[in-house]
Design brief:
- The structure is a single chain.
- The protein is α/β, with parallel strands linked by helices and 613 residues long.
- Among the domains are: 124 residues, Roll (Diaminopimelate Epimerase, Chain A, domain 1), CATH 3.10.310.70; 301 residues, Alpha-Beta Barrel (TIM Barrel).
- Helix content is 30%, strand content 18%.
- Helix 2 crosses helix 7.
- It starts with a strand and ends in an 8-residue tail after the last helix.
């Protein structure tokens, strides 16, 4: 395999012994040399391929330590993404266009990744608006994990009537006559939301494979090269892992995936882990696909759902009794685990269990950790540090911060979570998204949140003391995240000997205004030295991807993350106007494949609200 040399780059290595460089050489999937161009050329073979970075910023591939990528991939091609859409009017234009494309009996689904606070109108659509936009096509809209909106056609499909009882922890909102309106509420258990979503049609296996490939490429285009999959509800092992494992066998994975196993049945959690721990071992697999341990669900009685619109749920008295045998089994069999925990009250009680098990089965060297930890106390941080655990944080507050402030006040929101304190305590801390339902999968939204302290709706949550500088935030998305998959030293830096996972950025992360961080994309993403995504000058280097299946897929029309896709269109041809959308006169030909009556309808669906016709 021919050596590759990237030259003319602003290289951020995150290697403190060699922090900056302008060239990188790659051989056999790993980084061969990093430094000045002359030194790097001397280290590589004379016939090395040369790739000019054009003076752009080169960073290590981003690592998402908490994402539901396996489940998300199976469904990606069916979902209309409102991630990053700036207004409700734009979102509804997209919805109407997708309704026109979607054949019966398929649904139009908007499944998380957005919040009403990102819209200029600061609201969700009404049920009347949904029914007007889609009188016959079922529409399901999931907003975070607090509510879902179903139009009348979807209500008929799922069979909810005045005689349908409310499930535990959920509410089917009804009108004065007792008939369901189409609004479903988590109070605070989200089971009603994803159980209802699960009633919709599924893609056949070959379409799921295509869908997963498109989702992986979408993540590659944002600079993501590795993830830790946190399992998920209705993600059964091993059945729902067949597609990702097939892609792995076929050499079509473009992300490195470490996967955790998430128990599926209340009261049968110990049985699940006892069985799984005889089937697979942590670390089993290879650098592309490997097992990572248990969680984020260990036992259902310890799941404190993070709907800040309702009061904090009290965990039941049996939580410790349920959790202890599972943690004891995992510790004895040396399975790392992760545990979803939003509130300090849950964390403290879980730590009581972990400390008890630790007295009999030392946890030292077992890379276990909590996820989320928005309200963790200083005392709990110290207890985690004493046990050798870590904390994976996600940008859920970027989507729910306004609701937190409404309930608890702005002062209480100033350290939710207290990332700076965690770092000062010496804890392993990593960054992630919790995508695709609670927040967007776009890593730059998370990095923007860490640096600016703002929600996607523009509300400032954090004072300077709880914000991160850009390098520290980037480390949480690269080098630091390798601890959570027990892969320290293997990736996360641009350093000789590490895996050649490299990302060339559309804009310089270290110099763009803070408000522009969220708009950054990758123009070139390499996994093990192979190009897996490219745009602009590098578009031809990426392997071709089959068209989205089915042909009515929202991905075929709208792509994925809204702002990032729009900016990619604007930068690819060099004729962008101030709008960033409608300056592409030659791109009007694209409108032929979009169900819009005119240019205003076409560009409006892509988020342009300033087209003048």
């Amino acid at each position: 395999m021919t050596d590759l040399i990237l030259v003319n780059a602003k290289v951020t290595t995150l290697d403190r012994a060699n922090p900056v460089a302008d060239a990188v050489a790659v051989r056999d999937g790993r980084i061969l040399a990093v430094g000045r161009e002359a030194e790097v050329r001397a280290a590589a073979a004379p016939d090395a391929e040369i790739l000019d970075a054009g003076g752009r910023r080169l960073i290590p591939g981003l690592i998402d330590s908490h994402i539901h990528v396996i489940r998300g991939g199976l469904n990606y091609n069916m979902e209309l993404r409102w991630d990053g859409v700036p207004s409700l009017s734009d979102a509804m234009a997209m919805l109407r266009a997708q309704v026109a494309r979607t054949p019966s009996p398929q649904w139009v689904r908007v499944v998380g990744g957005f919040t009403e606070n990102q819209f200029a109108e600061k609201r969700l659509p009404t049920l009347d608006e949904l029914n007007a936009a889609a009188p016959d096509t079922p529409v399901f809209i999931l907003h975070l994990y607090d509510r879902a909106l179903l139009n009348a056609a979807a209500l008929r499909q799922v069979g909810y009537t005045r005689d349908t009882p409310n499930p535990p922890g959920g509410e089917i909102v009804r009108d004065a006559a007792g008939n369901p309106t189409g609004l479903l509420l988590a109070k605070p258990n989200a089971m009603i939301l994803y159980a209802t979503l699960a009633k919709g049609p599924k893609l056949p296996a070959d379409y799921q494979k295509n869908s997963t490939r498109h989702f992986l490429r979408e993540l590659n285009g944002l600079g993501v090269t590795s993830v830790i999959d946190a399992g998920g509800g209705f993600q059964n092992y091993p059945d729902d892992y067949a597609i990702i494992e097939e892609l792995h066998r076929d050499g079509q994975l473009t992300l490195r995936i470490a996967y955790n196993l998430f128990t599926q049945k209340p009261k049968e959690e110990l049985k699940d882990f006892a069985s799984w721990s005889t089937q697979v071992k942590p670390g089993q697999g290879d650098d592309l696909y490997r097992h990572n341990g248990a969680g984020e669900m260990l036992v259902y009685s310890a799941a404190d759902f993070e709907d800040f619109r309702v009061e904090r749920p009290e965990m039941p008295a049996n939580m410790e009794g349920d959790l202890e045998p599972v943690v004891r089994l995992l510790a004895e069999r040396r399975w790392p685990w992760r545990l979803h925990a939003t509130y300090d009250q849950t964390i403290s009680r879980a730590l009581d269990v972990f400390e008890k098990v630790n007295r009999d089965v030392p946890l030292a060297g077992l890379n276990w950790f909590f996820d989320h930890c928005e309200t963790i106390s200083d005392r709990s941080i110290d207890r985690i540090a004493a046990l050798g655990g870590g904390i994976a944080v996600q940008h859920r507050m970027a989507y729910q911060g306004e609701y937190y402030i409404e309930r608890y006040g702005a002062r209480a929101a100033e350290a939710t979570p207290p990332i700076a304190k965690m770092l000062r305590a010496g804890l392993p801390v990593g960054g992630g998204t919790d995508a695709t339902r609670v927040a967007s999968y776009n890593p730059w939204v998370s990095l923007s949140w860490m640096v600016t302290g703002k929600t996607v709706g523009g509300t400032t949550l954090y004072p300077a003391a709880n914000r991160l500088d850009r390098e520290t935030a980037l480390r949480l998305w690269t080098e630091a995240n390798t601890w959570f998959s027990t892969e320290q030293g293997k990736k996360g830096q641009i350093k000789a000997g590490q895996l050649a996972d490299l990302v060339l950025l559309s804009d310089d992360y270290f110099s763009v205004p803070e408000s522009e961080i969220v708009h950054i994309r990758s123009v070139l993403t390499m996994l093990g030295g192979k190009v897996v995504s490219g745009s602009g000058d590098y578009r031809g280097l990426a392997p071709p991807l089959p068209a989205p299946m089915p042909d009515w897929s929202p991905v075929a029309t709208f792509g994925g993350y809204h702002v990032a896709e729009r900016r990619q269109l604007a930068s690819a041809c060099g004729c962008a106007s101030g709008c960033g959308v409608h300056g592409h006169d030659h791109a009007r030909a694209l409108a032929a494949s979009v169900p819009a009556r005119d240019n205003a309808g076409f560009w409006g669906a892509f988020g342009c609200s300033c087209w003048a016709v």
